[in-house]
Write a structure and sequence with these properties.
The protein has about 350 residues and is of the alpha+beta class. Helices cover about 75% and strands about 10% of the residues. It contains eleven helices and six strands. A hairpin with a 3-residue loop joins β3 and β4.
Length: about 350
Amino acid sequence: MGMADLGNRLYTGESSFDFVGRRKLWFLIALVCVALSAVLLVKPGLNFGIEFEGGSQFRVTGSTDQQAAREAVDSVLPGAVPEVTQVGGDGVRVQTETVSTAELDEIRQALATGLDVPLEDVTSSTVGPSWGQDVTNQALLALVIFFVLVSVIMALYFRTWTMALASMVALVHDLVITAGVYALIGFEVTPATVIGFLTILGYSLYDTVVVFDKVRENTTEAFDRRDRTFAQAANLAVNQTVVRSVNTTVVALLPVAAILFIGDLLLGAGTLRDISLALFVGTLVGAYSSIFVATPLLVVLRSREAGVRALDAAARERSAAVGSSGATAAGSTAADGAHGGTA
């Protein structure tokens, strides 16, 4: 069975996966992942870049000898633990704590000598801690504004706070797990990382809105016809959109994976890994949350509403009546057959 055939069967209801009915399992998986990510954010914690913490940075062109770069810095600052990464195929980046102007010049000279490159191929810059704190505050402000605007827009678009709340929980789930993976791997958090976080939050939100739009369509029909419970209508919506979500996620992951694995690991383009890791992990987690977290949580949030309880009761009564009439019809047919056999 191909994906197209499977998608058609899921859309028409011929085949169905019980996403909503198994929500306790999905919630447990999500809670475990979030809890582990929270622990990782405490220890070892995020590795913030120079833009956030401040410090001095040196860029060497013409050599990729990272050990020689560390030894050069140690010759000027004994005991220092510089952050040394390869940049492109012919350079390294060295980051240290903030140093004086004299030490800046000494380290440049030591790097030029140790890596055997001309002095003009070693550039330096310093970021003050106050500027780094300002970048951190602006990044946090951007996230807060994003969440507030999204909450308002979702509530207005779907005309219910429950869909907005479920979407926000899914977004927090995506953000925490992505940050936890960053802490686990130890990649440096840069402004590009923040851009990546905002991008994957937007992607996850887009995927959730598509599912919720189908949920609204199906539940509206269920309220009119009284033939499905709210959970059944919502589960059908997830089944109808799951193939699309999987296909979209795979297509989105292909170029990101190329940047992350080929660009960074094979070509040495280390500057791209900050944003590509956030996009790769966030896209995967966002697809999971839109299917397994957002809609099941929406069902839980709305299950206590009087209108939803009335719909569920009416749908169950109708299902029971249909089952009873079917059983009666089957019994009558069997009886007629018995009488006919006797005659």
